[in-house]
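Ticket opened by: R.M.
Priority: normal
Category: complex prediction / small molecule

The reporter submitted a protein together with S-adenosyl-L-homocysteine and asked that the result be attached to this ticket for the collaborator who will pick it up next week. Submitted input follows.
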Amino acid sequence: MSVRRYHVQTFGCQMNVHDSERIEDVLEGAGYEPATDERDADVIVVNTCSVREKAEHKMLSLVGRFRELKEARPELRVVAAGCVAQQEGEKLLKKSDLLDVILGPDNIPELPGILKNIDDGAPRTVRTVFDEISPSFLMATPRSNSVSAFVTVMKGCDERCTYCVVPNTRGPERYRPADDIVEEIKQLVDSGVREITLLGQTVNSWYDPSALDEKPTSKRAPSGSRFALLLRRIAAEVPNLQRLRYTSPHPRHLTQPLIAAHAELSILPRHMHLPVQSGSDGVLRRMSRRYTAEEYLKRVNQLKSAVPGLTLSTDLIVGFPGETEEDFLATLELVRNAGFVSAFAFKYSERPDTPAIAMGDDVTNAEKSERLQRLFEVVGEQQRTHLKSLVGTTTKVLVESESGGRFSGRSERHEIVHVQMKEGENPIGEMVEATIIQAFDHSLLAAGPGVDPATVPSRAPKARTKLPVVGA
Ligand code: SAH
Ligand code: SF4
Ligand code: F3S
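Result attached by the on-call engineer:
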């Protein structure tokens, strides 16, 4: 039998990006090879996200595109994986005759076996079972030459923000033992990775499940300091690691020990992405975020005082049920007070089986668009002012890629920086000290070590290098 080929298409957050790496790994472990294009694939996996509206519809219309391919080659298998798959399960089989497998995020290792059974005559298959009893945290082999890699520390979410589908699609919180996390990071760094991003839906609520006495006694009063201990342990035990990021922290787990770790560990970036969602206490309460705008600001101000020059970015929702103009103005005020240098902002959309459905969806789409636009203006202005303020300063850039003779990477504050190096130098994977010479709308241009800034030609970066500011 000739080599079978796979193609994976990914939507959604970093957890899904990492899951797609795992899907590729398990398929390669079973002898599959990557296809150059979906038309050459024997298995097409669509790894879906259902966090916002029309997710299922988008997935089904994408799958509809495979009809011709499937008619030409009936042995082609189409797999729906990820959060829409987990949420809708069996129902998807009825909605599309093109789908062969519906696969939940915890069932990835089963995929090759399922495909084999179908080849042997088994019917279309749904596997969407959470591994609650003995959770597994599959490692993904680092992509060749990749400077950066993800490491999962926890999965699932127990927060149950009233608008959010993730607790349903990713299941209850499960934590990974510290020894396993550190071991995976050591292996990745030994293979050339220089930056690790720790992943979890509320990543900073982590505690070590193998140390029973460390289990927080109350969900409402988490210690959070366990996560700070994990960061310290990684910094101490993996000396060749250059940068340690994490996403997404929840504001209520931004504790004093975590702030202290940021002040002391140079391996942590001088940047935090800390989703706030709204600046109105009434809206925050109805969202069940469990903090007020004042509490959020107090904590981020403590963090900023502890780490000079630290920048913040965030996630925001506009048009949550009952959001008035006054509520929205409170959000704009918080955005200014926190000084976010970038933000992902979204129009509220009702999600299936979430508590907020009972609150209605009373803000019109036109109002949501208008509020999004106003947010865009404020955050965009703050971003431009911030980037301009950096011209003339030096920054440490972890170089990740090269295009047209110019290198790109991220600064210690997570800005995208394009660096002009000396002729013949290739700093990919290295941390270089660069002098910022020009600010674009969403990125920076810099001169690398020993390069005279006056000799660097100014050039607008390509559109794909943009750092998103506000999304719909
Ligand atoms: N676990 C992360 C966020 C996961 S979802 C956290 O809590 O920080 C990513 C973002 O999508 C959220 O921060 C929120 O801003 C947005 N989002 C989630 N549900 C949404 C909904 N129903 N409508 C609009 N935006 C939503
Ligand atoms: Fe969703 Fe809230 Fe959990 Fe984030 S913390 S995944 S927004 S329920
Ligand atoms: Fe989307 Fe699932 Fe991530 S809903 S945002 S892919 S956890």
